[in-house]
Design brief:
The structure is a homodimer.
Chain A lengths: L5 H12 L5 E4 L6 H10 L4 E6 L2 H13 L6 E5 L5 H4 L8 E7 L14 H11 L3 E11 L6 H13 L6 E8 L7 E7 L2
Parallel strand pairs in A: 1-2, 1-4, 2-3, 4-5
Antiparallel strand pairs in A: 5-7, 6-7
Helix pairs in contact in A: 5-6
């Protein structure tokens, strides 16, 4: 029994907010890890909207979902998450139970292509109002690559100023590892 | 289902490390909240050693334990936690499964009497080697009182330099509340 690791901690917060038929957003499809997790957690009557700017990421995600038989539950967008508001169907506004960001670069991909402070904050500004009451958004932050520290600082600064009447926000991190990832969790209070 | 609050998060990490017959230390008895929690979790064959410098705290703790019928499982010391190594019986060295610190002042007590950076760090230096393999130590940090910020900074600086081969260390905090408490959890790896 260890202290919670970063990715399991994020998934645990998300899992508590999901249910059969829920709507979820994966803001960073990447290798499809979180999209698959969300697709399983929302059940056959739920739906996941998943974003990535890299064709490679969407192909890996597509393969993974279909090999697990949950491809029909997911809509993949080749589009940056900063455009989620214009892309998502209006019917999901205020109904998103869970939203996950896994920032940084695509593992086993081009490390030059990373999420960036400015577009991540835009995505958060657009994404949080889409959450349902008691909906949860998690962001896994990495600081080991160029721009990572700046992006993490921007996410933390943005999160600190959220209205506590509208959102709870927490930060979980390992203390004695260099550049270990950390996770921010934001929960809509009502 | 909310994000974990600070005190439940601390208790959850501690609970995972406890078992019937375990040995535990409450470094800050206070009103007896954590001592009672530990006394229940170690069972009738376990034991808790609990420290406080204030008579008032020890009396409240004593009353609470006896009203719950677990007083016999607890040894109370009127002594600062920075002396735990000289006070605890040698047989418990390396056998402590859980150690809790709840820093700051005694609720409903004299707010001038607080734990302090220097003695807290001494207690940690003495306490961590007493942990059993996979033992856990938690510290709840408060920054809203004079000296609180300095003490929290000292605990964080101390924890960051712990050898990752010997300890895992994590920090959990709320982000959008002023002076919300936070919790550091340290787990002996082996």
């Amino acid at each position: 029994m260890s202290l919670p690791a970063i990715l399991p901690f994020a998934q645990e917060q998300i899992r508590k907010s999901l249910f059969d038929g829920a709507i979820a957003v994966d803001a960073t499809a990447g290798n499809g890890h979180d999209t698959l997790f969300l697709a399983k957690a929302v059940g056959a009557s739920g739906h996941v909207y998943s974003f990535d700017i890299q064709q490679e990421a969407l192909e890996r995600t597509h393969l993974r979902l279909h090999s697990e038989g949950v491809g029909a539950r997911v809509t993949l967008y080749r589009k940056g998450h900063q455009f989620m508001r214009e892309v998502l169907p209006e019917q999901v506004y205020g109904r998103v139970a869970a939203m996950m960001f896994n920032l940084g670069y695509l593992p086993r991909g081009d490390r030059q292509v990373t999420t960036r402070a400015e577009s991540t904050i835009t995505a958060l500004e657009q994404g949080l109002p889409l959450l349902a009451p008691y909906g949860v958004c998690t962001l896994v932050l990495y600081t080991g690559h160029p721009g990572g520290e700046k992006e993490a600082d921007a996410v933390l600064a943005f999160t600190k100023q959220l209205d506590p009447k509208q959102y709870d926000a927490a930060w979980y991190q390992m203390l004695n590892r260099n550049h270990a990832p950390s996770v921010v969790a934001i929960k809509k209070v009502r």
